[in-house]
Structure formats: C-alpha cells, structure tokens
What we know:
This protein has 2 domains: 1-38; 59-156 and 176-266, no CATH class. The chain has helices at 2-16, 22-44, 59-79, 86-102, 108-114, 122-152, 164-167, 179-207, 209-212, 220-266. The chain is mostly helical. The chain is elongated, with a radius of gyration of 22 Å.
Amino acid sequence: MRAAFVILLVTMPSVLLPSVPSDTAQVVALVALFGAALTFFEYVSAYPGLIEFRDAPPFNRLRFGSLFITVLLLTMILRGTTTPGPISEFVTAIGALIGYVLDFPYSPVRLMLLALPEGSSLTDIEMMREAAGMSYLISLMALSIFLIVLRLGHWPSRSGSFNVWINLPTFDPTVGGDVVARLRRDARVNVVIGFLLPFVIPAVIDSASDLFGGLSVFNDQSMIWVVAAWAFLPSSLFMRGIAMGRVASMIMEKRRQAYARADLEQMPA
C-alpha cells in the first residue's frame, strides 16, 4: 500500500493535468516505479536503510500525508485554469485568501513571488501566490498536528520500545561524543535549517535563474514540485529536529532511571 501511494503521489500531476507530453509521462512513470520499489524494499526489509522513523508512526505518515495533500491541491489549482470546476474554484479561493494574508514584506510567500522571472503577468503572480499560500498552510497544519501528537500521544514511547538503530539508520551512536549531546545538536541544526529554508530556497531559485531560467508558471508540473518542496522540506526538517530532541529526552530519562535503580541496589539493607 505504501508503494502504491508513492506511485499515486508521483503520477498525480501528470494524470490530472491536461495536455501532458508523452515523454514527460514516461519519465514520471519511471520515477514513480523507482520510488515505489525503494519504499517497498525499505519497509519489507528487517534491517534499516534510508527512511528514518519507519517504526515510529505516525511520523512518516504525517510527512507523506502533507506532501500528498499539497501536490493534490496544487494540481487542482492549476487544473482549474483550463478546466474549472467547483472543487478547483474552492481550493483556489482558499489559496488566494491564505496567500494574501501571508504576502507581506520579507515573508516566504513574498520571496517566492520575487523568484518569478521579470515581466511575469498579473495572472502568473496570482497563481504563484495561491499555490504558495496553500502549500505553506498545509505545512503549518502538518507541523501543528505533529506537535499535538507529540504532546498528547507521548510519541514515540506510546508505540512501545524505541529502537534507535531502526528509526535513525543514518545516525551512528558509536561515533565519538555523548549520544544525547549529539542528538540535541542535530535537533537544533535541523530546526535552524528548517526555519531558514523558506527564505533560502527562493533566493537560490532567483540566483540560478541566469543559468537555468526563472521559475516559470507555464510548466505546471515543475511549478507544483518546486512549490511543494519549498513548503514541505522546512516542515519536514522541523519535525525531524523535534523528533530527535524527543529521542534525546527519552534516553536521558532512561539513564536517570538506571542510575536511580543502581543507587537503590547499592544501598545497605
């Protein structure tokens, strides 16, 4: 089911958007099959690979769900420009409202508008504002839901024992330094990068426009994936940093319990 959802996510824009070239559809199908195979073998294998927190739901479910909803709603917004319908008009209206609220000087949405090439029409600017506003809203909602789950659901201890090797395969606890200090340091780095990325990505797009051309709203699929990544990556890094901080706190609590138990056993009868 996870592999099938990955295929659905990757192919969704090319299926729902009209007038997609056959060459683009073939490349999308190849990428979808590769992503599905990677996801299938990661979750079937008993040993860790690349996916983190695969044994600590609903961390990955929230991240994938936010990306899936973002791509779906952005696809509906762009589909509404050629084949409008009640759903696409409703989604576009919500995106326009959120975009106008978040479009103030030096905001991430304003920076994404500035990343558009010079001479963009008012229609292109409005479309980018709607897409950026909708994407940012979904990323904030996903982060808020994760914080609620973390607070009320006592994640990840509620799901049983937490295996650091399975859930953090790229983190090597045997490398020098205290594990808790390294986890907290990595957590802070992820939170800082997640805070900066919404501002850095538009600047990178703008600087690279001389080599690769500006961010164009005429290529619908490119716009969907760029805007979705712009909103999803910072939220994902925020969640990863918060999760690593939570794991560090759990290890500290286990250490305190072990030290207290050892002191109690050493007390004279």
